[in-house]
Amino acid sequence: MMHNAAFKFLGMSQWHYEKLPINPQDFTSQIKYLIQQGYVGINVTTPYKQKIISLFPLDKTTQVIGAVNVVDFRKKCGYNTDIIGFLEDLAFHKVSLQQTKIIVLGTGGVARAAVYGLVQQGTKIGVVSRSKHRAKQMIEELGVEANIFSAEEALRWKAEWMINCTPLGMPPYQNACPWPDSIPFPAGISVYDMIYHPQKTILMQKAEAYGGRALGGLGMLVRQGAAAFSIWTGKKAPLDIMFKAVREYQKRKEK
């Protein structure tokens, strides 16, 4: 909806953004079909952010991250705008990153973008995952220095921020929390939850209850979308229009 709102605002009547179902067993041939049909590009969501890597060359940052969420068919190139949207939103909210201790929950495509982006900003990272093996593999593939913790170990580390990169908190897991109930919640820690629906997850509610800030993922969603818009169109995205479209959509969805 935000891209179509941007197209309309800029008078780009020939442009249209739509959601398409993909059959996992027929993924490659469906991508080729979209190219043949004249599509300019696509957004890629989980679980395809790493699967699509073999189909297109990647820009330098995306090569390191190893996860793609935007493809431009004309340029025949894959990009990761999650890292752009994430860092821009942190900057907008004036989150200090230099030498800041941050816990990252998860090891998927968006976690890879978050860890790599944060390390480039001088952040100290602690990764908490159900699989320490996957966490170790992610860190090695990214070529960064980071700690791997259990939740209990992370609690003792006394981080200032926690970033949720897991689906726990969004439908159909909206009643779940990625921080285990068996471990005390870190008092005073602030949370950035990449989930944007619901607007306030259980993890965010806990952060506020324990004296921290709580930021949701709507800003990241729109800012990464704006970066994708610019890749596809070569134009500056009307950010305010895109934010308005997403907020109006959320209001309708939550009624």
Automatic annotation (TrEMBL):
It holds the Pfam family F420_oxidored. It comes from the Archaea. GO terms for cellular component: cytosol. GO terms for molecular function: NADP binding; shikimate 3-dehydrogenase (NADP+) activity. One of its GO terms (biological process) is chorismate biosynthetic process. Residues 101-168 form the Pyrroline-5-carboxylate reductase catalytic N-terminal domain. Residues 217-247 form the SDH C-terminal domain. This is Shikimate dehydrogenase (NADP(+)). PANTHER family: BIFUNCTIONAL 3-DEHYDROQUINATE DEHYDRATASE_SHIKIMATE DEHYDROGENASE, CHLOROPLASTIC (PTHR21089:SF1), SHIKIMATE DEHYDROGENASE (PTHR21089). SUPFAM superfamilies: Aminoacid dehydrogenase-like, N-terminal domain (SSF53223), NAD(P)-binding Rossmann-fold domains (SSF51735).
